[in-house]
Amino acid sequence: MSTQNTQNTPSEGPFQDLSPRDEAPQFVLPLVVRIEKAEPPARTDALETAARAVLMMLADERSLGEGPDEGEWARVMRDWQDARIRKVVRRARGAEWRKASALPGIAVTGKAAEVRVFPPVPLDGWPKELVKLQVSGTDLDDPAPPDVPGPLTPVLWLNPELGMSAGKAMAQAGHGAQLAWWELSEGERAAWRDAGFALAVRVADAEVWSALVGSGLPVVRDAGFTEIAPGSCTVVSDHPALRTRLPRP
Q: Which of 22, 39, 163, 172 is the most buried (most CB within 10 A)?
């Protein structure tokens, strides 16, 4: 299975339409973002926190191992990754957030954003504490333009031509983080984990987006279930370790 695509057209992949992965049982990775009416998080903070949450789930010892060393989430994590890599972001506040926080999962905090990620569940098997949470219409704003990332910071570049809700963009940022994780060596993964999965999520400049898509870095292509057309390129995963492997111009 290829996670790097160099053409701006649909092709087979884990987030792609018409994939043999559809033949496997389908699971979804639930993420819940806390959005209180009085103090919603900034959009970029929420996106970055969601991406880090996905990485923390992938790296958690409960998600790893086989046989006698198998973590409690390892089997369902494998089943999820053998099928379509679906992620759904829902929002909660108040009592809803407290109920969601009582479920087994991982809590991740950004500058102010709070996201909880849970082990994958069957498409039609959501826990009752999560199934009624709202999924559509999750949108957030940045009070000020985000800082320019440093040259050694992994960046998940968003397509500037796509208008995505915050919830959709959070899921796409999670996809981008996962593709970068898959491409890294064990040592590179450990270094990223030790750095707290530092990363940035930014909207790419329109004039460089095409070059990013064709660079050889991992590209997320959406299956088109919600908001955007199937095969749309949504995120390019620009990790410094992956950048060093690109062919020289």
A: 172
